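Quick one, tokens below. Sequence please?
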């Protein structure tokens, strides 16, 4: 699975790290072995852990992940599942860490307790750490994380995530300007973040200034953020703040020792951090040294691979790199990069039948190539400065081992951009006949300047058809120069369709079958044959999106090669001579947009006219088809706010890709339990913030909303100040970037199911062409039970033809997680993935009141006050205030009683009270604030001396003492007489 590397401890398959009781012990053993310099862990490749916990087993022996770590899309996991997981060996990730929609995961403190460095060699959309839509995550908890070498942090849409304002990211990253931390729970009122030591009135964590606020820095209530002295820079420091060696990165076990680093600033070589790899070893991926044999093994791994993305590692300037840089070529014997003499010979292997150049981007794939091992097909339909771009990327090509095809390149006027092409071998031929193939190039006027350019074609013929602006003399000159005149056939060059813009189509083609799927359409038409069937070269099938049924064949075409139609070539069907039913021509359109109208037509390609000059051909009329519907994309911009103690108002926007008629939305809501850990804290202690839960203000703003002027005597209404053009542009840029990031995230993490392979392109002509879509169970659910009685019930409601909904009948001051799914008119297709939003209902005005009066009982030496808890408080009751005073006195006394203390004492105990009459009242404090005071009641504290029980104690004591004295005296007198 991986390779040995210093820095971790290997485990057997029954890893004790899976049992929480062993986590701390295993971490300690890991540290001790690292200090002894004897530990050897594993280098693991990139990991994608999704859907369930099974692949976590692969992490058990990993010390370094050489790549990325993605943990995502776990919807059935619960918090108990993660309490058994811990991977203390993992100290470094070389690329990025991504967490997305993992249910039940509340913190990373136990999962990755020793993760120290994220290098960011390769980033996830410019980010090295991404935490997105983690609905249960309450804290990040990466308390060992000291350095992110490259990239930024994106933490977004985590409804329960706190402890963000207590992390100073400037101590972890070189720059925090590009960090994006938005739409999380983090705020002072709701989170009440408490760093270690806050219970005693002063935090024990280091403090820094962040956003002009000086405060303690911590990851959780138990873990401070480690901040080293400024002199240590990014090298890190030990637990007692001694700086690590200059070659360390992030942390170390002992100061000034390059063998005790947790991670290396430059390279790791045989357990020691070094500035550069020593002679005989080579740097790999910017962090470790390997031998020549190891680099050769990496090279050989891809030597016979057909995957062009598989890196064939070579050695260059002390590094084992994936390919030689520009200006160098590979020495296959030594695997080193050597400078070229003149332009570098670069052989580019075409893995497919032919390399299609249909854009500047695809041309850039061949930049610097001198020999094309394979065939080229140029299909350029438009572009800015296209000739210069093609010359810059294809101008060095000297040889093509296969064929060269120029087809439907409306933007081309000349082929002179192949300025160094001198030989076409023709080892593979188009249609097994042609080494050069030019078809339907509307603006092609010149091939090459034959007075300056020399080209040879070793094998195969030349084909020219439907090039209306290419003169026959230009074609004949090329045939003569390349040496193919003796090989040419009379039908290879059309005399009527080259150099002549006239073209006729006399017959009408009719479509006889159209079957639609959501992204595919099968089209078939009646067969057509000219008098000489050999003259039929094939069909040109045209299609384009057409919102309105008003398109023509020539829409979007101009002299510069622009064409709004997509054109595909269809081979003629096989002719039958044995009486069987002839094959019907047709085409399968793929990768179409769901629920979209398209215009289509087809016409023939015929080689020439007959001896009387008559032209043959056929063309259909333009018809319109529509693809089927499919599952919509996710609803956009969900927004929620509570206006009463029992209602939540929801708003959202339709999906960007409805993929049909969106007829309704499915809204789920589920009560979220309050954090029971809040009851473990004593909020009566100095320095502990009350974890109040305020209802979030509206996140929507309407510039047209008017706010009443509160100045006395003013009846005018004022509007919000208009935004400057710069502010509007900034907001638009941020919104566009956010949508781009989310699209990138969904495109990367959601792996589409592979479509079913078909044996015959047209084998589905008698069936509906549509991928099977599993019906989503959400579409038929009204409420779902929980896996156990502890999980609150999930409710649902269908919302028809609108993007708003009011959820009623909710509990007061309760948090709810809400899911919104878009559904279209076809119920069997199911609904979209969910858009998530959270909201809390308003507090109930009297819910925190203590209904019954306070009762008291004198139990010497204290007064026991008793009252009943509020029946249904706003969230949780966290403390009680007891206010009492002696009648006739001038001073009121206040006592704070935590909920934990109240449950322990079943009320409150007042001690050291002077005798007399007292008044008392109590009020409760919940997450929403204070309730009302109870009705004032009275109690009496008797005189300690005159109290009957006390008098009895005073009398009995001396009597017992006198009795003991008399007994002792009698015993002594008896002894003397004896």
């Amino acid at each position: 699975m991986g390779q040995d590397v210093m820095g971790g401890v290997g485990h057997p398959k029954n890893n004790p790290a899976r049992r929480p009781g062993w986590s701390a012990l295993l971490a300690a053993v890991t540290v001790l072995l690292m200090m002894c310099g004897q530990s050897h862990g594993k280098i693991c490749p990139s990991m994608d852990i999704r859907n369930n916990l099974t692949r976590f087993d692969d992490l058990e022996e990993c010390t370094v992940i050489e790549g990325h770590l993605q943990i995502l899309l776990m919807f059935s996991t619960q918090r108990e599942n993660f309490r058994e997981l811990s991977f203390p060996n993992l100290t470094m990730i070389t690329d990025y860490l991504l967490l997305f929609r993992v249910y039940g995961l509340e913190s990373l403190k136990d999962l990755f307790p020793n993760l120290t460095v994220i290098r960011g060699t390769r980033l996830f959309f410019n980010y090295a750490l991404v935490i997105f839509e983690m609905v249960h995550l309450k804290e990040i908890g990466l308390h060992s994380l000291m350095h992110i070498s490259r990239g930024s942090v994106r933490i977004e849409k985590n409804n329960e995530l706190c402890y963000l304002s207590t992390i100073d990211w400037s101590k972890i990253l070189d720059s925090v300007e590009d960090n994006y931390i938005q739409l999380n729970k983090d705020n002072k009122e709701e989170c009440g973040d408490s760093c270690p030591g806050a219970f005693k009135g002063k935090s024990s964590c280091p403090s820094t200034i962040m956003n002009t606020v000086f405060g303690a820095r911590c990851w959780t209530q138990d873990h401070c953020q480690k901040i080293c002295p400024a002199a240590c820079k990014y090298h890190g420091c030990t637990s007692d703040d001694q700086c690590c060696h200059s070659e360390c990165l992030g942390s170390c076990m002992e100061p000034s020792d390059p063998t005790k680093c947790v991670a290396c600033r430059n390279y790791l070589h045989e357990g020691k951090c070094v500035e550069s790899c020593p002679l005989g070893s080579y740097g790999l991926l910017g962090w470790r040294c390997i031998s020549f044999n190891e680099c050769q093994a990496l090279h050989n791994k891809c030597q016979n691979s057909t995957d062009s993305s598989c890196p064939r590692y070579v050695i260059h300037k002390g590094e084992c790199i994936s390919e030689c840089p520009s200006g160098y070529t590979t020495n296959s014997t030594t695997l080193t990069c050597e400078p070229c003499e003149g332009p570098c010979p670069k052989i580019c292997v075409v893995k497919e039948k032919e390399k299609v150049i249909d854009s500047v981007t695809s041309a850039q794939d061949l930049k610097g190539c001198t020999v094309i091992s394979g065939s080229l097909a140029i299909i350029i339909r438009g572009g800015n400065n296209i000739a210069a771009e093609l010359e810059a990327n294809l101008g060095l090509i000297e040889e093509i081992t296969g064929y060269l095809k120029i087809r439907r390149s409306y933007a081309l006027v000349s082929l002179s951009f192949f300025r160094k092409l001198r030989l076409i071998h023709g080892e593979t031929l188009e249609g097994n006949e042609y080494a050069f193939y030019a078809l339907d190039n509307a603006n092609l006027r010149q091939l090459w300047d034959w007075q300056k350019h020399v080209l040879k074609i070793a094998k195969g013929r030349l084909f020219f058809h439907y090039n209306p602006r290419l003169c026959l003399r230009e074609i004949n000159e090329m045939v003569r120069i390349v040496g193919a005149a003796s090989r040419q056939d009379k039908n290879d060059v059309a005399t009527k369709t080259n150099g002549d813009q006239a073209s006729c189509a006399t017959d009408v083609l009719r479509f006889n079958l159209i079957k639609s799927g959501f992204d595919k359409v099968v089209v078939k038409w009646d067969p057509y044959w000219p008098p000489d069937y050999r003259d039929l070269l094939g069909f040109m099938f045209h299609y384009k999106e057409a919102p309105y049924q008003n398109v023509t064949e020539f829409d979007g075409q101009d002299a510069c090669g622009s064409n709004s139609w997509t054109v595909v070539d269809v081979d003629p069907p096989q002719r039958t001579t044995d009486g069987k039913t002839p094959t019907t021509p047709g085409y399968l359109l793929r990768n179409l947009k769901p629920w979209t109208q398209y215009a289509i037509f087809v016409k023939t390609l015929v080689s020439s006219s007959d001896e009387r000059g008559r032209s043959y051909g056929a063309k259909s009329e333009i018809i319109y088809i529509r693809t089927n519907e499919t599952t919509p994309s996710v609803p956009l911009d969900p927004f929620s706010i509570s206006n009463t103690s029992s209602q939540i108002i929801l708003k959202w926007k339709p999906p960007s890709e409805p993929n049909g008629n969106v007829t309704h939305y499915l809204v789920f809501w589920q009560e979220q339990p309050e954090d029971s850990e809040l009851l473990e804290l004593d909020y009566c202690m100095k320095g502990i913030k009350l974890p109040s839960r305020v209802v979030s203000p509206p996140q929507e703003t309407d510039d047209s909303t008017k706010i009443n002027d509160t100045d006395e005597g003013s009846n005018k209404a004022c509007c919000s100040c208009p935004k400057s053009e710069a502010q509007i542009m900034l907001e638009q840029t941020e919104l566009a970037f956010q949508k781009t990031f989310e699209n990138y995230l969904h495109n990367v993490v959601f792996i589409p199911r592979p479509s079913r392979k078909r044996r015959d392109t047209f084998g589905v002509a008698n069936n509906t062409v549509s991928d099977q879509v599993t019906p989503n169970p959400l579409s038929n659910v009204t409420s779902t039970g929980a896996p156990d009685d502890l999980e609150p019930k999930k409710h649902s409601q269908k919302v028809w033809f609108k993007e708003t909904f009011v959820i009623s009948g909710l509990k007061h001051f309760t948090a709810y997680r809400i899911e919104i799914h878009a559904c279209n008119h076809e119920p069997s297709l199911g609904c979209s993935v969910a858009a998530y939003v959270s909201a809390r209902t308003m507090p109930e005005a009297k819910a925190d009141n203590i209904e019954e009066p306070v009762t008291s009982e004198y139990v010497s030496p204290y007064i026991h006050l008793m009252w009943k808890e509020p029946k249904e408080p706003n969230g949780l009751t966290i403390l009680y205030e007891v206010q009492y005073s002696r009648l006739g006195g001038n001073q009121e006394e206040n006592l704070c009683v935590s909920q934990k203390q109240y449950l322990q004492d079943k009320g409150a105990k007042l001690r050291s009270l002077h005798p007399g009459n007292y008044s008392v009242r109590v009020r409760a404090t919940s997450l929403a604030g204070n309730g009302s005071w109870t009705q004032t009641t009275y109690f009496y504290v008797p005189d300690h001396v005159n109290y009957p029980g006390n008098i009895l104690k005073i009398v009995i004591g001396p009597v017992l003492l006198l009795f003991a004295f008399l007994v002792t005296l009698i015993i002594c007198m008896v002894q003397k007489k004896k």
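The radius of gyration is 40 Å. Residues 6-40, 696-717, 753-789 have pLDDT under 50 and may be disordered.
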